[in-house]
Write a structure and sequence with these properties.
The complex is a heterodimer. By secondary structure, chain A is an alpha+beta fold. Chain A has twelve helices and ten strands. In chain A, a hairpin with a 2-residue loop joins strand 7 and strand 8 (275-278). Helix content of chain B is 24%, strand content 27%. In chain B, the strands form twelve sheets. In chain B, strands 29, 32, 33, 34, 35, 36, 37 and 38 form an eight-stranded mixed β-sheet that branches. A five-stranded antiparallel β-sheet of chain B has the order 6-5-4-7-12. Chain B has a five-stranded mixed β-sheet with strand order 15-18-21-22-23. The chains are: A alpha+beta, B alpha+beta.
């Protein structure tokens, strides 16, 4: 009896003191292996009298269980130690830089075009397009600008080289030719609501003019459309675009060959830290040309001007971008300077939505 | 168009302030571009008389003056040599800012004597360069008057932008008429303005001059009157002052009269020196190649489309645009012929455009001067000449007639509301139109005044009514809106463009916008452009780009020069081609240029890496995938073009003919043309070639049916001819058993030890998808046999 207690004390002591998994295995074999001490004791059970077995059996089994459990416990401790040591050996300097992907960007002009599409989609306007190299008919004549019209000379038009005897094409001087194309596409019977953003060209170059720039055209052809609808549409658009309720518009009677009556539209600004910020009415900035579509243009578009009328407007997209996001040099828009693109560009995920606000 | 407030008030009886007038001008559509008051900065300076002048007790070159500027004598120290008792000049009191010296006057001690201000020179007041002495005014100049008032400097100059339709406002009178209509005062009768009893033609002596028109299209009317015995000196002071105030240089009274009437009434005139003419004047078409030396000193070569005024020998006027130097008036002129003609606007426009010549006269004739104002205009001109140059007038010659038939418009006053959005009461509309010179009949037939060539139809009258009533009064009216949530409007092309744009940005590419036109040399490596500008702004911006790469390469070069280590740019735009029939063909395209470092040197990656052809391929494939192209079915082929490295480039095609993209390393000779070195990769995605997305099936996806059993993989290593394209082998392997093979992926390419010369080893992992039951060994072997057999057709041998 004393032997068993002693054996248990010795074994458990050795197990708890085992320095490594190898030593522990030696101990296991020593206790529980084929020739192990406890295995030996278990074998003695067969030769015992039933009474003796009744008392010794449970004691031997208890010893076996206690040793088995101690081995498992010690094994877990040693394994954990070994893993800790291994992990400690794998330590890295986590202050080292991780390689990243340099972010890309969306150009402000594209971003603003997406913003416009989003706002005007809510007002029922689709986005239309047209060629940038236009015939003089689409760019001028169909828009009530005959060859000798003084406004035609004011357009600083780029002409393309033409074969002898052929009329030269022009680079469109405005997005207005898309008015005619959109009306043709709608077939003279359906109402039209479109915006047409795109590249436009004029032979002009200084800090505020570049020979290529971007415009957006708006056109509504329907029945019973008035100047009041134009005013509301522009107000609604500019409020949505700048996401401000204090947008004040000033319409000024003006002249465009393709509209009658015509109005230029100024938007009020406030001075904030010496910079013009859209909103309020401390001063006025011209942002749009607009008017009721001239009956000649409605006719050229294949609609009956006695039945259909509507409004049109045109606006510089680059300028809208500058007013909203604060760039001050138009020329930088077209330079492709990666620093500028990073500074003024937009994340791929800045998709304009009405729920999230179109601005970013 | 510039004029002064005083000039305006010659025509407009008004109590309105400058601010009110300026505000009203813009409101009625005459946008004010600027208002300048040249007198404002000199408002403190007074006309003053020097009462006494005595030597300064302590300085040889200074004098001690007592000066009366209207408020009694004050003591002033003065260094001007011309300062003397009795002189009337300009005095600046303490507190006045002297613009020419950039200082504010103070009471100060000058060598022991107090000086209470300054007598000024023209330079000190920025009125001239004279600084030898103080200003000397006439002895009767009213002492105490503010100098700008005395000198007529207090008349603010207003600059308005006149739109091309408003010829009538190319004269001060037309502007006054608009303001009167807008309720700012009353328009004075024209005869009163010119101090004439009547505007009737000046009854002269004898027959009118010999003038005629033989070009009734270009010059339908040529009126003339001769004045003999004139003296062509300086114009009267008021006229010179008015012209000077708006920046016109006075020349001589005859010339100044024509300029004055042109600006005052929008009525251009011309005056010929009769002594320099041979025979009568005739308006005719120029002969091709005829020359004229114009008043601007330039010689113009004319053609038969142009109307000129000529005598028996030579051309003396580019009709309606600019007079000739030879017959211009001079100090010696004694007999003149005054021309008051009507030139056809279209002819003027064409001639002006052809000659590239603009002038005040052209601006007016081109917009269409008042065809009913020839007699009045001539009467005014002759009256002015007689009044200021003396002489005797002849009778008037009237050759031809201007197209002055009255235009009428059938107007419905309801249109103000139904088109203009503002229902203006009929009586008010009538009053507005009448104040503008229209006559309104009881049935609303509106007769257009002769000076409003721009009015054609009811919409024009709506504009008149609205602009005079105030366009600000038009109420905002919401556009009718379809019920429910707004419908999607973007087209498939637009959605495609948005997807590829944002995918490219998400992949680390920066979107650029570069010029649509490039230089001839930039276009050359790309086969040159199909379209060239006839009038480019510079040679650098001349050829419509045939590709997006030139603009991006140039941008990359600029960025690298600025020290950017790596450049990843893309652009979405059009390339401008000519189709088979030489017609315009603009095609949406996405271009990418990768230049400089792909990755900087790093603690993990080691040396800085450049871009390779597979970077370009990766972008092309990723963007095509985003665009919805069937990337798995695309063929990689060659023929990317001469822009690319011949061995490191390719095209991605849908079928053998439809090229969706070209990609690869840019050819060194192209790089050289763009001043680039190092490795540059590029991609062009032809967005127009992408197959349209099949729609119409709604949003429902196919049912999800994952295979019941796991796929298994088998590796095959083949020895193949070195020239065999790996893609061909992969395709062959994948197609060896379409039912069982899910995927074939190349994972190793090897040459070297164990691989014979002229061959390479390609290792492919084949993924097999079992159907309802697991593959048996026999089935697997059968598939493997088919794979090996398919590969063998390409000369591939399974490695042992």
């Amino acid at each position: 009896m004393h032997d068993l207690d002693q054996l248990k004390t010795d074994l458990l002591g050795s197990i708890d003191a085992a320095a490594g998994l190898d030593a522990l295995e030696v101990l296991r074999v020593h206790a529980l292996g084929k020739a192990g001490a406890i295995t030996g004791l278990l074998k003695t059970l067969g030769g015992m009298s039933p009474e003796e077995r009744q008392t010794e059996g449970p004691r031997i089994h208890a010893l076996r269980e206690a040793v088995t459990e101690a081995l498992a416990r010690r094994k877990a401790v040693l394994e954990r130690k070994a893993m800790d040591a291994k992990l400690a050996s794998e330590t890295l300097d986590m202050t080292l830089p991780a390689d990243g992907i340099a972010p890309g960007s969306v150009h402000p002009v594209s971003q603003v075009m997406d913003e416009l599409a989003e706002i005007f989609a809510d007002l029922g306007f689709a986005v239309a397009t047209g060629p940038e190299i236009e015939t003089q008919w689409y760019n001028f004549s169909a828009l009530n600008m005959p060859e000798t019209h003084p406004a035609r000379a004011m357009h600083d038009t780029f002409y393309l080289q033409a074969a002898e005897g052929e009329e030269a094409h022009v680079l469109r001087t405005h997005t207005s030719p898309v008015q005619i194309r959109a009306m043709h596409a709608a077939g003279g019977q359906q109402p039209v609501r479109i915006i047409a953003p795109g590249r436009t060209y004029r032979s002009d170059s200084d800090a505020t003019h570049t020979p290529m720039f971007h415009q957006v055209e708006g056109l509504v052809i329907d029945k019973g459309i008035t100047l009041g609808h134009l005013k509301w549409t522009l107000e609604t658009f500019l409020k949505a675009f700048f996401e401000r309720d204090d947008i004040v518009l000033r319409l000024r009677p003006s002249y465009f060959p393709f509209t009658e009556p015509s109005a230029e539209v100024d938007v009020g600004y406030s001075l904030v830290n010496g910079k013009r910020v859209i909103g309020g009415s401390e001063g006025w900035m011209e942002v749009l040309g607009s008017g009721m579509v001239h009956r000649t243009v409605i006719e050229a578009g294949g609609y009956d001007p006695n039945e259909w009328q509507g409004f049109a407007f045109g606006c510089g997209i680059d300028r809208l971008a500058m007013l909203k996001y604060g760039m001050d040099d138009l020329r930088a828009f077209f330079d492709g300077d990666v620093r500028w693109l990073r500074h003024y560009g937009f994340s791929a995920l800045d998709v304009p939505t009405l729920s999230g606000g179109v601005g970013a | 168009m510039k004029f002064t407030l005083g000039w305006l008030k010659e025509h407009l009886e008004t109590e309105a302030s400058l601010d009110t007038i300026v505000e009203a001008l813009t409101r009625v559509g005459l946008e004010v571009e600027g208002v300048e008051d040249p007198g404002a900065k000199l408002a403190a300076f007074r006309v003053a008389r020097v009462l006494t002048a005595a030597p300064h007790p302590n300085a040889d070159k200074l004098q001690l003056l007592t000066v009366d500027a209207g408020e009694g004598p004050v003591q002033v120290v003065c260094g001007a040599p011309n300062a003397r008792a009795g002189l009337v000049g300009v005095f600046g009191p303490p507190g006045a800012y002297v613009p020419g010296s950039a200082m504010t006057l103070v009471v100060r001690d000058v060598r022991g004597v107090t000086s209470n201000g300054m007598m000024c020179s023209t330079r000190e007041l920025e009125l001239g360069d004279d600084h030898d002495g103080i200003i000397e005014l006439p002895a009767d100049a009213p002492v105490g008057t503010a100098y700008p008032d005395y000198a007529g400097l207090s008349d603010p100059v207003i600059d308005v932008s006149v739109t091309p339709n408003r010829q009538d406002c190319m004269g001060v009178r037309g502007i006054a008429r608009d303001l009167a209509a807008a309720g700012l005062g009353t328009l004075k009768p024209l005869a009163e303005v010119y101090r004439m009893e009547t505007l009737a033609p000046v009854a002269g002596e004898g027959p009118g001059p010999d003038v005629a028109t033989r070009d009734p299209e270009g010059c339908p009317a040529f009126y003339g009157q001769e004045v003999r015995g004139v003296t062509n000196g300086e114009a009267p002071a008021w006229m010179r002052q008015m012209l000077t105030a708006i920046g016109q240089k006075p020349i001589s009274v005859l010339v100044d009269i024509t300029n004055f009437v042109s600006i005052d009434l929008g009525r251009p005139l011309h005056v010929y020196d009769k002594a320099k003419l041979k025979g009568g004047l005739v308006a005719r078409r120029a002969a091709d190649g005829e020359h004229v030396l114009a008043l601007n000193g330039k010689t113009y070569t004319l053609d038969a489309s142009m109307t000129v005024i000529a005598d028996d020998v030579a051309v003396h006027d580019i009709g309606g645009i600019m007079g000739g130097e030879h017959s211009g008036v001079s100090e010696a002129t004694t007999d003149v012929i005054i021309e008051c003609a009507y030139f056809d606007p279209d002819h003027i426009a064409r001639t002006g455009q052809k000659l590239g010549l603009t002038s005040d006269a052209r601006q007016r004739f081109e917009r269409g001067v008042d065809p009913a104002f020839l007699d009045d205009g001539l009467a005014i001109a002759t009256t002015l000449v007689l009044g200021h140059c003396g002489g005797t007038a002849s009778g008037v010659t009237r050759a031809g007639a201007a197209p002055a038939e009255a235009k009428t418009v059938a107007y419905d006053p309801a249109r103000a509301g139904t088109l203009g959005g503002l229902a203006v009461p009929e009586a008010e509309q009538k009053a507005i139109l009448e104040r503008l010179g229209f006559t309104v009949a009881a049935d609303w037939t509106v007769t257009v005044p002769s000076w409003r060539r721009d009015i054609d139809g009811p919409a024009d009258l709506v504009e008149e009514v609205i602009r005079i009533t105030g366009i600000d009064n038009v109420p905002s009216t919401p556009l009718p809106r379809a019920p429910g949530v707004a419908r999607p409007t973007a087209t498939a092309e637009q959605k495609l463009e948005r997807r590829v744009r944002r995918t490219a940005a998400a992949r680390g590419l920066g979107e650029a916008v570069t010029w649509s036109f490039i230089s001839e040399s930039e276009a050359a490596p790309f086969g040159g452009g199909a379209w060239r500008l006839a009038n480019p702004i510079s040679e650098d911006l001349k050829v419509m780009r045939p590709s997006l790469l030139p603009g991006l390469l140039a941008a990359a070069e600029r960025n690298l020069k600025r020290g950017a280590p790596g450049v990843r740019l893309f652009e979405i735009g059009r390339r401008y081609l000519a189709d088979a029939t030489k017609n315009l063909d603009e095609r949406p395209t996405l271009g990418i240029v990768l230049a400089g470092d792909r990755a900087p040197r790093g603690w993990q990656s080691g040396k800085a890496q450049g871009f390779g052809a597979f970077d370009a391929k990766a972008e092309a494939v990723a963007l095509l995938e985003a665009a919805g192209a069937p990337v798995g079915n695309l063929q990689v082929m060659g023929e990317a073009g001469e822009v690319y490295h011949p061995g490191q480039s390719g095209t991605l095609r849908l079928g053998p003919k439809t090229v969706l993209a070209a990609f690869g390393m840019v050819h060194p000779s192209v790089l050289k043309a763009f001043d680039l070195d190092g490795d540059v990769a590029a991609v062009e995605l032809y967005l127009d070639a992408l197959p349209a997305k099949r729609g119409g099936t709604g949003f429902m996806r196919a049912p999800y049916t994952p295979p019941a059993l796991q796929p298994v993989t088998r590796d095959f290593a083949f020895l193949v001819p070195a020239a065999l394209a790996a893609g061909d082998l992969v395709r062959a392997v994948k197609g060896a058993d379409k039912a069982a093979i899910l995927e074939a992926r190349l994972f190793d390419v090897f040459t070297g030890a164990g691989v014979p010369d002229g061959r390479k080893s390609l290792a492919i992992e084949v993924t097999l998808q079992p159907g309802e039951k697991s593959f048996t060994d026999e089935e697997l072997k059968a598939v493997a046999d088919r794979v090996v057999a398919a590969a063998a057709k390409l000369g591939a041998v399974l490695r042992g």
